[in-house]
């Protein structure tokens, strides 16, 4: 309970700090390019009653589907390669070659293959998240010592119990950390992808406002995409609190603020 209150306090503090810095830039620059934050916040709430919420909802749906597919595929492949070294010898070099490639460059390819709708955008974001999840999961499993597997096997654990009581608990905290990193990147990529062949999405809304030289609405869109990222991060935090309680306790014991 106390920890939850402290986290909420930190979020409020960070929000106030950002708004004050924003207002300071507005006063110093004295240009419409940096609008008054308080005016922008009022416009943001007005736009929520118009179509801004629809744009945010469409973007959130694209992110949610991409994350779900990437976690299922990337997590499964990562576990398999981490537990089967002979297959990792063949596929590891391929992953090593493809992982650092800028996936955003493949957006035109996905648009040709999957069309101009949601599928091409979801496919792009999925590929970005998938590699991060795959590599993190595989390396986490490979980092487990063989003695741990020998110990749990000596207690009579079957294959399912090895996954349930050893592999998944060891991998889950790192997988969620990788998900945080990759989701932040994917939201940035989504902003870029939503500028092509679409009429809905927060990226489209921001760029449309910029073209119309409506900087107040543009910054209202920036607030919306920031809140979208915060919402996804909070959802991951809730998952971590539910699935990795031992990891949070360890952090609490070893962290001094």
Helices and strands, with pairings:
Layout: H1 2-29, H2 37-48, H3 52-83, H4 85-98, H5 107-114, H6 118-142, H7 146-154, H8 159-193, H9 202-211, H10 215-243, H11 245-254
Structural summary, described in words:
InterPro entries: MetI-like (IPR000515), MetI-like_sf (IPR035906). This protein has 11 helices and no strands. The protein is an all-alpha fold and 257 residues long. The chain is 82% helix and 0% strand. The two termini are 17 Å apart. It is elongated, with a radius of gyration of 22 Å. It has helices at residues 2-29, 37-48, 52-83, 85-98, 107-114, 118-142, 146-154, 159-193, 202-211, 215-243, 245-254.
- State the helicity in percent bands: over 70%
Would you identify the regions where 5 or more consecutive residues have pLDDT less than 50?
Answer: 253-257
Q: Name the overall outline.
A: elongated
Percent strand: under 5%
Number of DSSP E strands = 0
Mean pLDDT over the residues: 83
**Count of discrete alpha- or pi-helical segments spanning 4 or more residues:** 11
The CATH homologous superfamily of the largest domain is called MetI-like
Secondary structure category = mainly alpha
**Overall tally of structural domains:** 2
Examine the secondary-structure arrangement and name the CATH architecture of the largest domain: Orthogonal Bundle
Question: What string gives the helices and strands in order?
Answer: HHHHHHHHHHH
- Profile the largest sheet: none
Specify the CATH class of the largest domain.
Mainly Alpha
Between the first and last Cα atoms, what is the distance in angstroms? 17 Å
Q: At the third CATH level, what is the topology name of the largest domain? A: MetI-like fold
Radius of gyration, whole Å? 22 Å
């Amino acid at each position: 309970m106390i920890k939850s209150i402290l986290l909420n306090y930190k979020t409020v503090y960070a929000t106030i700090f950002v708004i004050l810095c924003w207002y300071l830039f507005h006063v110093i620059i004295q240009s419409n390019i940096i609008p008054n934050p308080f005016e922008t916040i009022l416009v943001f709430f007005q736009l929520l009653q118009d179509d801004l919420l629809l744009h945010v909802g469409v973007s959130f749906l694209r992110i949610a589907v991409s994350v779900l597919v990437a976690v299922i595929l990337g997590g499964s492949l990562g576990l398999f390669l981490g537990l089967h070294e002979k297959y990792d010898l063949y596929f590891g070099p391929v992953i090593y070659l493809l992982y650092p490639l800028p996936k955003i460059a493949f957006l035109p390819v996905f648009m040709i293959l999957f069309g101009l709708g949601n599928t091409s955008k979801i496919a792009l974001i999925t590929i970005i998240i998938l590699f991060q999840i795959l590599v993190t999961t595989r390396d986490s499993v490979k980092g487990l010592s063989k003695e741990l597997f020998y110990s749990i096997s000596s207690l009579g654990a079957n294959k399912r119990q090895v996954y349930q009581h050893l592999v998944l608990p060891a991998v889950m905290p790192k997988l969620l950390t990788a998900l945080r990193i990759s989701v932040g990147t994917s939201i940035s990529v989504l902003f870029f992808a939503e500028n092509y062949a679409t009429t809905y999405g927060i990226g489209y809304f921001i760029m449309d406002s910029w073209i119309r030289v409506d900087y107040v609405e543009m910054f209202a869109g920036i607030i919306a995409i920031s809140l979208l990222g915060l919402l996804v991060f909070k959802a991951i935090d809730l998952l971590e609190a539910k699935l990795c309680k031992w990891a949070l306790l360890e952090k609490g014991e070893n962290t001094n603020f």
